[in-house]
Queue: 3 jobs
Job 1
Amino acid sequence: MSAEVIGKSISELRSMLKAKTVSASEVLESHIAHIEKHESEINAFLSFTFDQARQQARTLDQNSGDFSDAGAVLAGVPVAVKDNMCVSGKITTCGSKILENFTAPYDAQAIVNLKNNGALILGKTNLDEFAMGSSTENSAYKCTNNPHDTSCVPGGSSGGSAAAVAAGFAVTALGSDTGGSIRQPASFCGVVGMKPTYGMVSRYGLVAFASSLDQIGPFGRTVEDTALTLLAIAGHDPKDSTSLTAPYRNNNPKGFPELTLSMIESLSKQSPAELLKGTRIGVIKELVGEGIETNVRNSVLDATKLLTALGAIVEEVSLPHSRYALPVYYLLATAEASANLARFDGVRYGLRDLDAPDILSMYNSSRSLGFGAEVKRRIMLGTYALSSGYYDAYYKKAQQVRRLITSDFEKIFEKFDLVLSPTAPSTAFKTGEKTGDPLQMYLSDIATIPANLAGLPGISLPCGTSVAGENAHRSEMPIGLQLLGAPVSDGLLIKVAYAFEQASKLKLQSPFLR
Ligand code: GLN
């Protein structure tokens, strides 16, 4: 049975479920068996929620109408979720010792939406502690391995989710992206990953890292699977004050295609050239030059040639303030994190040092014992940036430059429909290669951070592989192409990504799917 459903897309599974060649419970058990066979090589998960998934599958099987075209979009689809989203009754660690015994009292809104759409939630995936990192090596529990080469990192911070999808453990997965944590691991693992427009998906029940940047989004092996998962989780939520309301979503003067089921289904009825005709795409000059590996640059430039050949209008554009994006991010994200993480004090949540003689030393030692080195570094940096006397020089200045970066994009989107760049400057690196040098690690996000600062949607999809042997110790590894659009252009990004995926005919399967 396993070989028949592992690696299948959502629409393939739906036809099989509809035709009753397989039941939801069988789809689930096959995925569980595949996980049990290979998880020790990948370490994608921190915990499993098989009991809830089995219950959901049984309910679906007893009500087979759910697999009809009118049924829930993810009926019977196994999905993995990053362990910084609350699943009711389950441990939510955020990859941190400080939350090792925290049981979530409710479902995050994105989880409610997944469940209402029939998804089978397999478990909670590994991440860098509190989503701070680019390799999943900052998890307090384990390192996740890249399914394309298990001696390499899967990227991060949503490395467990990206690896789970690439290894065929889950059909799709959820991650969170504050500075690139969905797109960069998608690029490293050869899957599709999307950060929606800020406010598209509710952050209710996502443990906050940097609230003005955090956004939940999907991973899939195909653009269509990614789009269907986004459709399932998106929507206004009054419990998140930054959630987009219907008038804003529909305030779409440029006529971006709205992300609906019929829009997604219509994609396969058109050729890539029909989908791309007349689309104006800017190639971000600052992100295809210095500091980008040759393999990656060549692959992205080949992608632009293909898009041009298909009828898109491709020109170089400049984001003059993009060189400040990294320092701005590391001031704002750490400032917000220092405030958000203040709640983990040994009293309200998680780990407490029971031997501390008094309350102040209890706060102190609970936090010292519970947080890892990277999280402590960020809390100190953020507290410094917000402290009196430095606030104007750092936090306020960073906010002003954030505005300039947003304006750069606004100017570009007056003339272009979307912009393109590599997702990351390199392919997946070796485990341990960058752990001693935080700055090198931070540079992994140079291309992804600007979209978070400006609240824009971004998608990463495979556009090629590195040449084996060209880069000293690397085997052939996936390369990601990033597309960024104006606010609420999520549907357009899906459309263009779909056209590219069909035209490039890339099939980047990890050895676990072959
Ligand atoms: N790698 C970036 C960081 O360490 C982004 C993390 C994220 O998007 N959650 O902050």
Job 2
Amino acid sequence: MTVQRTLSILKPDATERNLTGAINAMLEEAGFRIVAQKRVHLSEKQAGAFYAVHKERPFYGELVSYMMSGPVVVQVLEREDAVAKYRDIMGATNPANAAEGTIRKRFAESIERNSVHGSDSADNAATEIKFFFSDCEIVG
Ligand code: IDP
Ligand code: MG
């Protein structure tokens, strides 16, 4: 497996509790390089577009409201097999099911306020990275 990139979001529950440094420390400890990063406050349109894949799910409206409720930190993470490795360290969507040592086990408050987003495939990673970053903003 070659070096790969994935899109990460530190969600409003994480910025609210001042956890961005603690999460970044876990990421760097796990071998990820943060090759792009910015703090943004998503509009309803941006949050809705980013999560458009979940439009039909019952929690979509609440998810969009939550993601625009405070600032987020969007990041591009780089390492070998980054997409799968980040899903591993994130932990299960519902923190009640997340494994020991994962970000969500340590920090998530609920299935919705679960601290981090990570792309779920290489194709989606490419799409999601483009959603937030231009090529010249990513410094490997
Ligand atoms: P993932 O973030 O682990 O990939 P997805 O199924 O893609 O999980 O869901 C996207 C986000 O929507 C979750 O991270 C979480 O914030 C929220 N979410 C997922 N399922 C529920 C639910 O059943 N109730 C409320 N929010 C949910
Ligand atoms: Mg997902």
Job 3
Amino acid sequence: MKTTGFVLLWPLIAWVLSAQKFYSEAPLSASTTKNVRVRFAPSPTGYLHVGGARTALYNFLYAKRFGGQFILRVEDTDLERSTEESMRMQIEDLKWLDLGWDEGPNPADYSDMGPYGPYRQSRRKEIYMDYANRLLEAGHAYYDFRTDAELDAIKDALVKAGKPPQIDAPKDMVPLAEARKRVAAGEQAAIRFHVKEKRDYVVQDLVRGDVRFPSDMVGDFVCIRSNGMPVYNFCCAIDDALMKITHVFRAEEHLSNTLRQMMIFEALGLESPRFGHLSFILGSDKQKLSKRHGATSCHDFKVKGYLPEALNNFILLSGWSSPDGREILSREEQISLFTHERFNSAPAVFDETKLLWMNSMYLRALPHDELWKRIEPFLKEAGLSIPQAQDAQWRDHALTAFKTSMQTLADAPKLFEALDDSKFAVKPEAAEVKGWPESQKVWAAWKAELSSHAANKISETEFAAMQDRVKEQAGVKGKHLFMPIRVAVIGQPHGTELKILVPLLDKSSLLKRVEMCL
Ligand code: GLU
């Protein structure tokens, strides 16, 4: 294994090897739920991933369940990967999921909303510097003038000696006053946290029970880089304390960071929130869910025509379950049932087939006005124009007819296309039917039936009677009757049932279509 990979994985490996877990079924006490303040702290490096959406949802529900506050904090200190645009995209995704926050960037203009701002870490650098100075003065941190090359050499030597590649304080640590002078004179130095006492730490994790971090798991770690940029673990701990966060529910991959954060709280005498580390979400191959599994961002699912209610409900169940095993839960039910005792510490598997099923359930249950509002952008995107849809009764009929064939909103265009005259054409699939000698007879009789029909609309029963008369007049039955009529209505021999489509089409448009066949 390459040294860098080992360095990155070491905390996790050490934890897996040495952690002792004690699972407790501690009931919620007043102290665990008092003044609940939870946060979602995304790094804005792209669209919101479903894993992030789950973290946001759980924190949101927890706040609502206990009458607390949900805070959005943007962790954008990694200047190479964070972008303003990503922050905006993630805010849009959270709005789409209807996971509103009480404090954080105002979704309208991104200004700070709430008493503990700024809520973007890139605007809190002075605060971090202030706390780094407190650590320096209390002897919990030191200026480290060693170069990257020197540090790499130290790590390589440790690995060669079979030891974890942890950096410890240099023997000749520069006294603070002198270090400050050198830094003021332009020398570069990181501010490194000094792990003075090697002892075990235990975090009472709300998902996993007690997790023991062995004493030798971390060495001295950087709080402020030599270029002046503060590091995630440091910012996160300072912000959680200053923003008075009471509970942190976040992904399991942050478990090893928790140790460093606990050390920071302790050294600064700050109160630590309670932690709960959520299990991984895996793809169908049991590997961590990633882009190669297909859609993984909320934006992907939005474009694929999923409803945010369905996606929320689905991700709710990826790591949590309801006490009575019910799966479809309204937002109100989710809030009233949500407690950390129902988190599942085993990994969740992301099953898009199940999501699709859940989406179709939600889609069918939507009131038709609402369903139409959601479908319209998809029809527009597909370039469909359906003037009949102005009529609420027509819309109602069309949606009743089509919604059971829809699993996502993106299924709508191919169903509604049959109702758009401008899209009608006799398709190549109809070539065989066109060639049958019976077809001309059927079309002529169908045209005559239409012409003599008084009203502009044809009911299902009227259509059945018209079909019977065409059968008699043309002297044709079976597929040689039905297929040509289908071609005259939808331009192809296969598609939605005619008894559903014909009542949705105007007589005038049916006439135009059959004339195109003749
Ligand atoms: N910014 C971190 C991330 O996006 C979250 C850290 C945390 O929740 O403590 O993974």
